[in-house]
């Protein structure tokens, strides 16, 4: 019969398995936290919606920011670009804009509400910026949300973009010829909705809208034809579009009614001395 090697208590160590148990507990105490730490380090960072962060920073809801973006796209993008990077010779870039970053919300809101005439010394593009983007129907809350949306376009750590291509000589700014019927209903609607591309006096803007003053195209059309043309616009894919620039329906202002369009046609006729 073989001798037994079963551990037996001794005076020095009454529990022969205690040392092993303590060592095992120590191993678990060190290994399990290390495994947990490794899992945490390899786990991807949770996605946080940037608009949620902006909303918290600005104290507005994501719905307000969404409304601001939609309003911008519908009322401002024609001049400032769909992505707010600007349209040369028209509207300056508003993404990563030193101007936006250097003005308060109240100042930006006031500018949108009032617009900026080419004769204003602060107007460095020579282009007319219509009050409320030419949309008198826009409520103040929507315009405030546009300001909030513009804030989301300012990327931290990104330097302001250059606006050199948008600056014109001071003598050229505000040089649009005054209209013979300036102040008429048609002139006001034309300036608000059409002048950004066609000029304050219908003289045209190179690379954007053709001249309407003394235009053979205008002379060949009836009033009804012109009104229908302004009402529907002319997309860039239209074979008759020779500028390669989209002409939005109603000058990009869906709030214009038939009476407004008729006044625009009347004003355009006045540019021909009719």
Automatic annotation (TrEMBL):
Alphabetical keyword list: Heme, Iron, Metal-binding
Superkingdom per UniProt: Bacteria
Residue ranges constituting the Cytochrome c domain according to the UniProt record: 63-154, 181-272
Alphabetical list of PROSITE patterns matching this protein: CYTC
InterPro entries associated with the record: Cyt_c-like_dom, Cyt_c-like_dom_sf, Cytochrome_c-type_DH
Pfam family, one: Cytochrome_CBB3
Molecular function terms, GO-annotated: electron transfer activity; heme binding; metal ion binding
Protein's name in the database: Cbb3-type cytochrome c oxidase subunit CcoP
Natural source organism: Engelhardtia mirabilis
């Amino acid at each position: 019969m073989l001798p037994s090697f079963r551990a037996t208590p001794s005076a020095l160590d009454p529990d022969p398995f205690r040392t092993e148990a303590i060592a095992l507990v120590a191993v678990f105490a060190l290994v399990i936290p290390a495994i947990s730490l490794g899992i945490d380090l390899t786990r991807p960072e949770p996605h946080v919606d940037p608009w949620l962060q902006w909303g918290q920073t600005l104290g507005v809801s994501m719905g307000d920011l969404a409304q601001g973006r939609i309003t911008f796209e519908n009322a401002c993008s024609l001049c400032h670009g769909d992505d707010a990077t600007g349209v040369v010779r028209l509207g300056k870039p508003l993404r990563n804009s030193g101007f936006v970053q250097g003005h308060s919300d109240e100042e930006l809101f006031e500018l949108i509400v009032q617009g900026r005439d080419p004769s204003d010394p602060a107007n460095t593009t020579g282009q007319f910026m219509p009050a409320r983007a030419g949309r008198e129907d826009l409520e103040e809350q929507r315009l405030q949300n546009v300001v909030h949306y513009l804030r989301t376009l300012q990327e931290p750590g990104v330097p302001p973009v250059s606006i050199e291509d948008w600056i014109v000589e001071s003598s050229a700014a505000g040089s649009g010829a005054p209209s013979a019927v300036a102040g008429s209903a048609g002139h006001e609607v034309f300036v608000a909705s059409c002048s950004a591309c066609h000029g304050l006096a219908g003289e045209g803007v190179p690379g954007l809208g053709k001249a309407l003053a003394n235009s053979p195209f205008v002379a060949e059309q009836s009033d009804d034809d012109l009104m229908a043309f302004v009402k529907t616009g002319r997309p860039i894919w239209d074979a008759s579009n020779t500028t390669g620039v989209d002409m939005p329906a109603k000058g990009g202002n869906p709030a214009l009614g038939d009476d407004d369009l008729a006044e625009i046609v009347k004003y355009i006729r006045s540019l021909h001395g009719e």
